[in-house]
Specification:
single chain, about 300 residues, alpha/beta, Transcription Regulator spoIIAA, Rossmann fold, 2 domains, 8-stranded mixed sheet, 4-stranded mixed sheet, about 30% helix
Amino acid sequence: MTAQPPPSEGTIVFSVDGPIARGDEPALCERLRLALLALGDRVVCDVGALVAPDVVAVGALARLQLTARRRGHQIRLDRASPELAELIGFVGLDLVLPLGRSASMSGVTTIEIETPHGRALAHLHPAEEARAALVLGHGAGGGVASRDLTAATGAALSAGVGVALVEQPYRVAGRRSPAPAHQLDAAWTAVVDRLHARELRGLPLLVGGRSSGGRVACRTAEATRAVGVLCLAFPLQPRRAGAESRLPELDAVTVPTLVVQGARDPFGVPPSAPRRTVVQVEGDHSLRGDLGALTDGVRAWLESVLAS
């Protein structure tokens, strides 16, 4: 790992130049410790060269993060491959090792947006000759690299719809527990308003998200002036005894809504309604069972909404 020229003032940038072998951790941590003596309030680790990541590499990156945090810093991984992002999520380190720019698609731009509750990130996936934009949020305990969000992004891009994947401030800050609902809603609205005023200006706006991200999109659909809402794995019925259904959040949406739900989702499956299409796919709350059906459903719905 060697220091690279910083892309902007106040940022320390590193790159991992190849595979990380067992026994490399002490040397990597020492290099990082020395690099952190330089001035900079942010640390970016370019992992684009990790083309065949394994648990050894993820463990080493986690150790580097620990080294950085002991010195008051936090590393954000830049250009992580889909394989690395999935492996990090699989071992439960997606909050320990937050992702910056993705290597999964060319042309992706990550921007920082200040909200009333801290700094959020928006990962912009442009579509050629975009005819609309779709802004998606993550679930309570996951990130924007989840398989269903990735599949929905691909579906939107193939339909000529640009995508912005939004990381809430609590995740950007490295916290595992989500913020209260009113803070999530306020931060989300601030991000969407900024995007619609600048990067996505002039485009019809659709919003949505995975699980709790879909709930946020539903609650704020009117405030964000969305023309449609996409919910992936909507958490309909809380699993704690006596908890009320969240169906009223879906019912309150007045624009076309698509819910893609696993047939065996432990949270249940919401009913269809005049403005709400529900597509059941094989699988549970993760929606990993049939990503092809998810992709087809999202693409068809987007075509229908934009044609109306």
